[in-house]
């Protein structure tokens, strides 16, 4: 394919208009094409002289599909296409106001997100360039959101371009200063990209939590929170499936709590409650009555039993006074005596339990355990412990200071006696 961008001294914007116009009218013959190209170039010249940058953007984007939808491009032609789009994006820096720049950005985003399956990585690259050129924070948030929409629609290749930016999402949200509704849309867009990414289940669960946490249960959110039921159920299933997650705050979220009264999702909510507040026997009873539901969500019964045994062990640790008899473990986990140490080792290797085993007395001495739910009671307990530790440290400091004063006084008296 021939070079698109004119390499003469012509103004880059006019060169883009001329090149795309010539491409658009290439099959019409010189008698028809030349006057049309001249007309478009003259119109572009007028826009430049009058600083009508929004009109200029419309004109430059009019034939952009001819380039974006071209079936195959050589490396040189692809570079030329990127150059054309960059020149168009640069219009936002010429705009007379942030509002005008935002309107230009919206036009560019609409063009780049149309038919996203064609050259998606190039489109996303251009959107990121537009992001960097925009002066307004609201404009940057809009462009980033459009890049996520494009990535979600275009598939894995495009998703790979945006996933590395997700680690900075919290910084972006703070920088843009966007409100809860905008954050909600952003987190939901991220979850839709991560859902199909292999090896990113933790990140997917993390952003599902971020999305669900934006709902505070207020009356003015009734419609919005009702639309979050599917994501709430998805978060529950991801938690139950994961062999790395043993703590979550889903039960405290209004978006999740609404499932308790929903005919379709009530069993899913009950399953979450079992994993976070009950023991293995409750899960087994639930599975007997809901085996088809579990299979429908892709849950493997044996894997659920394994996780539920570890969760039951955590529950025992939370209710004991630091020592758990083997007999209590065998009963709660429904295992034989000779299996107790296996499950203790498994809990330690999963980093959810720190303990010592007293084989002689058949006891497990717990020094630390993961709390399945870390809500207000856990915060209050932590505050109480920190208060006790602070008091102990203060007492130790006072004792040391008192001993030092006594020691210094004794040395002073000894010096007087010597003199």
Automatic annotation (TrEMBL):
Q: Which InterPro entries match?
A: COPS7/eIF3m, eIF3m, eIF3m_C_helix, PCI_dom, WH_DNA-bd_sf
Classify the source by domain of life.
Eukaryota
Keywords for the protein's UniProt record, in alphabetical order: Cytoplasm, Initiation factor, Protein biosynthesis
Where it sits in the cell: the answer is:
Cytoplasm
Q: Which residues form the PCI domain?
A: 203-371
A Gene Ontology MF term for this entry? translation initiation factor activity
Single Gene Ontology BP term? cytoplasmic translational initiation
Sorted alphabetically, the Gene Ontology cellular component annotations on this record are: eukaryotic 43S preinitiation complex; eukaryotic 48S preinitiation complex; eukaryotic translation initiation factor 3 complex; eukaryotic translation initiation factor 3 complex, eIF3m
Question: Where does it primarily localize?
Answer: cytoplasm
Cross-referenced PANTHER family: COP9 SIGNALOSOME COMPLEX SUBUNIT 7/DENDRITIC CELL PROTEIN GA17, EUKARYOTIC TRANSLATION INITIATION FACTOR 3 SUBUNIT M
The record's comment on protein family reads:
Belongs to the eIF-3 subunit M family.
Assembly with partners or alone: Component of the eukaryotic translation initiation factor 3 (eIF-3) complex.
Q: What role is this protein assigned?
A: Component of the eukaryotic translation initiation factor 3 (eIF-3) complex, which is involved in protein synthesis of a specialized repertoire of mRNAs and, together with other initiation factors, stimulates binding of mRNA and methionyl-tRNAi to the 40S ribosome. The eIF-3 complex specifically targets and initiates translation of a subset of mRNAs involved in cell proliferation.
Q: What is this protein called?
A: Eukaryotic translation initiation factor 3 subunit M
Q: Which organism is it from?
A: Triticum aestivum
